[in-house]
Design brief:
It is a single chain. By secondary structure, the chain is α+β, with helices and mostly antiparallel strands. Helices cover 30% and strands 15% of the residues. It contains six helices and five strands, in the order E-E-H-E-H-E-E-H-H-H-H. The longest helix is centred in the N-terminal third of the chain and has 16 residues.
């Protein structure tokens, strides 16, 4: 008999999940076993509640799953600053930087297909990017935040980012700030825009 603090044992076979005892599990060694500690999940809940109470976050919706088995799907806190509405599990949030790994993956896929090389100069794919001393910047340097080109200035307000072509042009004609290939200077927004434009131009020919 499992105690409340021991792992929950679940077996998954052909898309079906069923709770089994330890003795039963001995006879299905080739079936994946999912283990989750109820105590660990409770510690996660406590950490989320503390983060809200300490004003580290307004709130959030969280899902934890393994091998297709949902073990936690809960919301904590509120939807935003000054909001009295509690967060729900189906809320949609603005989370920045989540597309960076997707954009980078698209670049790697194109490199695998032989459509570009990480050693390519960005200007080979975006000729106007060569302006402002950026002619030697490579794709790899943009991926690793070592390209040295500028962060977008404060006069380029958020609504302006909705104009893709204008934003790319603004980035292309900005001067370089650091020597390419040297120290890391995090491109909070600019680098991934350039990488995405490379993907767009290579894909569309």
């Amino acid at each position: 008999m499992l105690t409340s603090e021991e792992h929950e044992y679940l077996t998954v076979s052909q898309g079906q999940a069923a709770t089994r005892s330890r003795s039963q599990l001995r006879f299905v060694p080739h079936v994946p076993v999912i283990r989750f500690s109820p105590g660990a999940l409770e510690r996660f809940r406590d950490a989320a509640r503390r983060a809200v109470a300490d004003n580290c976050m307004y709130g959030g919706s969280f899902l934890i799953a393994r091998h297709g088995k949902l073990v936690l799907n809960e919301a904590f806190g509120h939807v935003g600053s000054g909001s009295s509405r509690e967060a729900r599990i189906d809320d949609v949030y603005c989370i920045l930087s989540t597309t960076k790994p997707i954009t980078a993956t698209a670049v790697f896929i194109m490199a695998e297909r032989g459509l570009l090389r990480l050693s390519d100069r960005v200007s080979e794919h975006i000729p106007e990017f060569a302006n402002g001393g950026k002619d030697k910047v490579t794709v790899a340097q943009v991926l690793t935040h070592r390209s040295g080109f500028a962060t977008m200035p404060g006069d380029w307000f958020p609504p302006m980012w909705a104009d893709w072509d204008a934003t790319i042009q603004r980035l292309c004609y900005m001067p370089i700030e650091h020597a390419p290939g040297g120290s890391v200077h995090y491109h909070a927004v600019t680098g991934s825009w350039i990488l995405a434009e490379i993907v767009r131009r290579v894909e569309c020919g």
